[in-house]
Amino acid sequence: MHYGLTPKDTRKFAYEFAVVKNKTVPENWSVNKCTSYDWLKRQPQLTLQQPESTSLGCSTGFNKTTVQEFLITSKQDIM
Fold first, then answer.
1. Are 37 and 8 in contact (CB under 8 A)?
2. Do the domain assignments include residue 52?
3. Which of 5, 11, 44, 73 is within CB 3.0–4.6 Å of 34 for a Cys-Cys bond?
4. Residue 18: inside a domain, yes or no?
5. CA–CA separation, 1 vs 19, rounded Å?
6. Per-run averaged pLDDT (10 residues), the chain, 79 residues
7. What DSSP character marks residue 37?
8. Total H helices, total E strands in the chain
């Protein structure tokens, strides 16, 4: 429903992580303060999707109260 990081945010995060871990990074990473687009393409374990707008109905329907009611009902049905 709500996506986390965008591809650009992921590349920035990966660069910051490499710097914190004192890893050697290419010069263009230091200039741009993020990894290259090619780096992201070489990471098949990262499945990023473009963020999509979430409808108001979905956002308001997925809240703490609604989820708690669902879990309580589900537990009663299982027992």
1. no
2. yes
3. 11
4. yes
5. 31
6. 75 95 94 93 83 73 84 81
7. H
8. 5, 0
Task: Please name the amino acid found at residue 9.
Answer: D
Query: Does any domain span residue 1?
Result: no
60 within some domain? yes
CA distance 34 to 25: 10
- CA-CA-CA-CA torsion for 43, 47, 50, 55, nearest 10 degrees? -160
Domain count, the chain: 1
Q: What is the pLDDT of residue 51?
A: 64
pLDDT of residue 57: 75
Structural domain span for residue 19: 7-78
Residue 79 has a pLDDT of 66
| Residue 62 CA to its chain's centroid (Å) | 18
Does the model's pTM come out above 0.70? Answer: no
